[in-house]
Amino acid sequence: QVQLVESGGGLVQAGGSLRLSCVASGSIFSIRTMGWYRQAPGKQRESVAVTSGGITNYADSVKGRFTVSRDNAKNTVYLQMNSLEPEDTAVYFCYATIRASGGSFKDYWGQGTQVTVSS
Fold first, then answer.
1. Are 58 and 69 a contacting pair, CB within 8 Å?
2. Per residue in 27-40, pLDDT tens?
């Protein structure tokens, strides 16, 4: 059984920073894509930063402020968020495409972690 567990959310003032972490665990054979999505109240879930094969794509709204990184040895992805704005308030979800032992690549999601930015 593969699962993703996030940590690092919380409440921060505008201009502050937070670092999210997500660890993939279970019978993992290979991880292809890892990244972060977010969903604000009343809005659709949107891609924030996703990395795969050395290529990273960022949402225009976070370019220059957020940085995604991976530690493949630890099956972990991070999201460093700087210069946070109230508009960044959302539930942040970790995402990965993982091939479990003996299986094919599938999409996995974490349970989500709340990020609240006060003005």
1. no
2. 999 999 999 999 99
